[in-house]
Amino acid sequence: MDYHAYSLMLKAMAEPNRLKIIDLLSCGTLCACDILEHFEFSQPTLSHHMKVLQNAGIVSAKKEGKWQHYTLEPTFITGFQEMTTALLKADDQCLCHEAKSCDCSSTTL
Amino acid sequence: MDYHAYSLMLKAMAEPNRLKIIDLLSCGTLCACDILEHFEFSQPTLSHHMKVLQNAGIVSAKKEGKWQHYTLEPTFITGFQEMTTALLKADDQCLCHEAKSCDCSSTTL
DNA sequence: TCAACATATAGATATGTATCTATGTACAAC
DNA sequence: GTTGTACATAGATACATATCTATATGTTGA
């Protein structure tokens, strides 16, 4: 389980405004000005958020003339859901395969 | 789309140590001392992380004598994956159903 | 070339948070 | 009751980050 990449995605997603940006992009490509319309914050703040999303591998950018077009990375869409599934299902790493040192497991639950 | 609850979960999950705690709990219930064994940080720090996970609805706690037993919330496991799916698939909210004001959409992609 | 527009960068500030030490609380065993 | 154990709380500190204003960069059109 690669905690680092997954944690980077989660951290980028955890900001409510960025979550909304992802939701907006889930329908397709948008330029910065279209995204900005949906928020109260300033243009540099959007620029900051888009950079965070790119660094996390969530969004890719493609410049067309003056405009910056943003798209959700297909590898993110599939990868994130796969890692989520891997996280939440019991696997080899879990403690039940290891020796217990704490007494609490000897008590009757 | 309830950004708030989902964002609370994401924020709680975004910390690498908490991510590891969730992975450990994915196999079943564990007490605090068993979890603490897997980390370098102090006991109060674990206590802090467990409270964050509980406030996000990710983990529930049940006290048995001296010991605090932590379990992944079943509602979190299903709910988180549902909200993730809802976020990443195109839905009614997306911009393509609204009027564009930005000129970028008139250019040939 | 110049002006207008779209976006990025720099630097400052305020707020959030992960961590620690010290201490408190609750329970168990003697 | 006293002592030891498991965990929580309080308060402090260091670091991250979301936001702003001001400015720079790059592109288009006149």
Please render the helix and strand layout as text.
2 copies of one chain form a homodimer.
Chain A: H1 3-13, H2 16-25, E1 30-31, H3 32-36, H4 43-55, E2 59-64, E3 67-72, H5 74-88
Antiparallel strand pairs in A: 1-3, 2-3
Chain A binds a DNA duplex (30 and 30 nucleotides) through α4.
Question: What does it look like?
Answer:
Two copies of one chain form a homodimer. Chain A is elongated. The first copy, chain A, has a three-stranded antiparallel sheet. Chain A contains five helices and three strands. The mean pLDDT of chain A is 89. By secondary structure, the first copy, chain A, is α+β, with helices and mostly antiparallel strands. The two termini of chain A are 30 Å apart. At the A-B interface, helix 1, helix 2, strand 1, strand 3 and helix 5 of A face helix 1, helix 2, strand 1, strand 3 and helix 5 of B. Chain A binds a DNA duplex (30 and 30 nucleotides) through helix 4.
Name the poorly predicted regions of chain A: none
**Overall mean confidence score, pLDDT of chain A:** 89
Distance between the termini of chain A: 30 Å
Over the alpha carbons, how many angstroms does the gyration radius of chain A reach?
A: 19 Å
Strand numbers in spatial order across the main sheet of chain A: 1-3-2
Which pair has the most extensive contact?
Answer: A-B, 53 and 53 residues
Which percent bin holds the helix content of chain A?
40-55%
Based on Cα principal axes, name the global outline of chain A: elongated
Query: What's the tally of helices of chain A?
Result: 5
What quaternary form is this? homodimer
Work out the number of β strands of chain A.
3
| Percentage of residues in DSSP E strands of chain A | 5-15%
Strand-pairing-aware structural class of chain A: alpha+beta
How would you characterize the largest beta sheet of chain A? 3 strands, antiparallel
H-E string of chain A? HHEHHEEH
Protein name (chains A, B): ArsR/SmtB family transcription factor
Pfam families (chains A, B): HTH_5
Keywords (chains A, B): DNA-binding, Transcription, Transcription regulation
Domain HTH arsR-type (chains A, B): 1-92
